[in-house]
Amino acid sequence: MNSRLTLAALAALAAACATAPQKTAPEVASPSQGTSAASSSRAREAASARDPEAQAALKRSLELSARGDFPSAERELKRIVDRDPRLDYAWTNLGIVYEREALPQQAERAYRKALELKPDQDEAWNYLTRLYARTGRSAQIEGELRGRIQQAPTSQGTRGALVFLLLQQDKYEAAGSEAKKILQADEHHVRGMQLLAQVYFHQGKHELAKMVLENARAIDPNDAVTYNGLGLVNLALKSRGPALENFKQAVALKADFAEAKNNLGAMLNEAQDYDAAIRELEGAVNVAPDFAAARLNLGNAYRGKQENGKALAQYIQVRQLNPELADTYYNLAILHLDSEIPNLDPVARLKTAIAYFDQYRQKGGKDERVEQYLRDATKDIEKEQRRQQRERADQLRKAERPEPAAKPPPSSKLAGKARPSPSDANGPRSKGKLTTPASKLGSDDQGTPAPKPATSGKLEEREK
Known about the structure:
This protein is an all-alpha fold. Among the domains are: 1-23 and 257-394 and 439-464, Serine Threonine Protein Phosphatase 5, Tetratricopeptide repeat, CATH 1.25.40.10; 26-135, Tetratricopeptide repeat domain (Serine Threonine Protein Phosphatase 5, Tetratricopeptide repeat, Alpha Horseshoe), CATH 1.25.40.10. Helix content is 67%, strand content 0%. The chain contains 22 helices and no strands. The longest helix is centred in the last third of the chain and has 31 residues, at 370-400. 47% of the residues are buried.
C-alpha cells in the first residue's frame, strides 16, 4: 500500500476532505438527493386524493429514480402530469429527475410550474433556489425570494430557501436571523432547526448545533438530513464512531441521499475500506453526476485500490466540473508521482506530477509538503534519466561489438565434457534485473512524511 495514500486519507477526513482544514456544515437535502420524505409523502397524498392510477405511477417513478433509472422515472412522471397537470408535487419531482439527467433548464421549468400551482410549496422553492445557486444566479433568486417573503411573510418555504442562499454566501448572521424567524413562527419546524444548526456550525458553535439537531431528531426520528448533520457535527467534535453511525443511518433512511453517501464514503476511505467506499461513492455520483466532491472522493477510493486508470478518469471529470478546485490538481500530482500511468514513461509521468503541483499552487493550494515532493520528483527524474542513459550505452556497446568468428565443430575425438559457464554453475541467469520503480526513488526511501490526498474540500453538498 502506498504510504502517501494511507496517511493522507487519515488527514483528509479531519480536514473535511481538504488539503487544509475548512469548516463544513450539516446541510439539508439538495436536488441531487431526490425528493425529501415530505415531498414524497405529500405527492402521494395529492395523487391519491385525485387519482389512484396517478398514485401508482408516482410510486413507480420514485422506485425507478432510487434505482438510477431516470429516463423511466421521467416517463412515469410525465404520464402523471399529462393525466392531471394540477399535481404540483409531481412537477417538483419531475424537476428533480431532470436535474439528475443534467437538464437544468427543463428542471427550472418544472419547478416554476409547481410554484404556479402552489406558490408556497416549500420543496419547489428549495430546489429552485439550489439550482440558481449552482448556476451562478444567487443574486437573482435572492431578490425573488425576498419579494415573495414580503408578499407572504408566513411562507416558511421561501424563508428557508433564503436561509440556504445566505449560508452559501457566508452571511451567517443574516442566515441565523432568518432561521430564527422560522422557529418563532413554529418552534417544532424541523427544517428550520436544521438550518439554524448549519449557522451555528459555521460559527464554530458545534455543541449548540448538536443540541439543535438532537431536538430535531426528537421531533422526527426518521429525517435523514438530521442524521447527516449530526454526522458532520460529531466529526467536528472528534467523535468519529458516532459520526460514522450517523452517516450510515442517513443512508439507510434515504438510499439516494448523495451527500450522506459521499460523507460515508469519505470515512470508509479513511478506514481503507475501499471496496465499501467505492460502493457508496459510485451510488452518490450515479444519483448526482455533477457532484464534484463525491467524484474526488471516488477517485481517491479507486487510487486506494490501485485502479489508477479509474482514479485518473474521476479526477479529470472533477477538473471539468470545477476547474478552480485546487484539490483536484493535488490529487492528480500525487497520482502521477506515486503510480504507473498508462502510455507515460517515468520521466514524462514525473514531469506531469510537477506540472500539476504547480497548478495546485496557482489555484491557491498551500500544502507545505508540496516543496518536498517537488524535490523528490526532480531527484527521481535525474535518477531515471541516468538509468536510461546507461541502458542506451549498454545497447550501443552491444551493437558495436564484432560478431565472434564461427568455429568449426569439434571432432568427436577432441570433444570432451563442456565446462559450465558461471551462470550455469550458479543456477539460471535472470532474464531481467530487479529495479526500484522511479517513483519510489529518493522519496519513500528518505522517510518523507506522507501528505493527505486532497479530496472534496467539503463533507457536504455545499458547492458554490
